[in-house]
Amino acid sequence: MAYSDFMDNLHPLRVFLTVAGHMSFSRAGEALHISQSAVSMQVKTLENMVGLPLFNRDGRRMVLTAAGATLLDYGHRVFALLDETRQVMEAEKGGRRGTLTVSADTTAGVYVVPQYLAHFHREYPDVKIALNVVNRTQVMEHLQHREADLGIMGYIPQTSDEWAVAPFLENELVVIGPADHPWRDRSRLSWREVQEASWLVREAGSGTRQALDRVLGSRGLTLRPAMELGSNSAIKQAVMHGLGISVLSRRVIEFEIATGRLIVLDVEDFPIRRAWYVVHPKNAYLAPPAVAMKELFLR
């Protein structure tokens, strides 16, 4: 591959990344506002530059070749570095403009981060803000690929020595039930009593589910959940309709508690006190908007 040709025109690489993101030439064309044939031509141009095929077809499904997977990773890094360069240049102009991208796990993204972004927007109205509400794995991927400046999540990454991690807000997990639950006036319910209740739980891998599993593991207990649900809203609705009890962050249920639609049950080992963290790679350059946003979280 001629290095000068590759660097002179990054458009084929951008088209390739879009195709790889959608795994579809037609959807990539729609996203880029160009024809499918133009997409195919740009990918072919890049394959000629690289000297290797980037996609294979498995029946009707597109898959990346080994070279394509490698180029995908480096392509993300190329554009992340270019964006970082742009932000550094913006910083030289005074730091009151630019962009800020925050990726947050599902609970923090809905119930915690928006209030901080509203405050930030009032202080920095000329900064363009984007919020991605995704699962924890995707938060980490966004940070690794420099697709987000800051990540907000309810756990510390396992390889925490690679990350700058700071707690900024308490996250209290409680056991909840419907307003008319027969245990509403009971104190210090034991696990012997509650273990056989109808439990509604978040999906495996969610921070709330992991916290519940750790409590159970410390007591040598297991649950046979009556239902596994993929969102806090679904859990709340199911509990309010009498399908069972569950564990959620107190911040998720503030409105329902205030309006008498849900209650907090007094169960041993609860509340579980955790924290939400602001996270970014230690070696990442933080543009002034990201620095200001981090300071706001930690204020």
Structural write-up:
It is a single chain. The protein is α/β, with parallel strands linked by helices and 299 residues long. The protein folds into three domains: 3-77, Winged helix-like DNA-binding domain superfamily/Winged helix DNA-binding domain (Arc Repressor Mutant, subunit A, Orthogonal Bundle); 95-169 and 276-298, Periplasmic binding protein-like II (D-Maltodextrin-Binding Protein, domain 2, 3-Layer(aba) Sandwich); 171-272, D-Maltodextrin-Binding Protein, domain 2, CATH 3.40.190. Helices cover 45% and strands 22% of the residues. It is built from 13 helices and eleven strands. The chain has helices at 3-8, 11-22, 25-32, 36-50, 66-92, 106-111, 113-123, 136-144, 191-194, 207-218, 232-240, 254-258, 288-298; strands at 55-58, 61-64, 98-104, 127-133, 150-153, 163-178, 200-202, 227-229, 246-249, 262-265, 272-281. Strands 3, 4, 5, 6, 9, 10 and 11 form a seven-stranded mixed sheet that branches. Strands 1-2 form a two-stranded antiparallel ribbon. Strands 7-8 form a two-stranded parallel ribbon. β7, α10 and β8 (227-229) form a beta-alpha-beta unit.
Key features?
alpha/beta; two-stranded antiparallel sheet; D-Maltodextrin-Binding Protein, domain 2; Arc Repressor Mutant, subunit A; single chain; 45% helix; 3 domains; 13 helices; seven-stranded mixed beta sheet; 299 residues
Shape estimate: globular
CATH superfamily (homologous) name of the largest domain: Periplasmic binding protein-like II
Q: Structural class of the secondary structure composition?
A: alpha/beta
Mean pLDDT: 89
Question: Tally of extended strands?
Answer: 11
CATH architecture of the largest domain: 3-Layer(aba) Sandwich
Percent strand equals 15-25%
The CATH topology label of the largest domain is: D-Maltodextrin-Binding Protein, domain 2
Outline the biggest β-sheet.
7 strands, mixed
Give the CA-CA distance, first to last residue.
50 Å
Low-confidence stretches: none
How many independent structural domains? 3
Radius of gyration: 24 Å
Tally of DSSP helical segments: 13
What is the helix/strand order? HHHHEEHEHHEHEEHEHEHEHEEH
CATH class call of the largest domain: Alpha Beta
Approximately how much helix is present in the residues? 40-55%
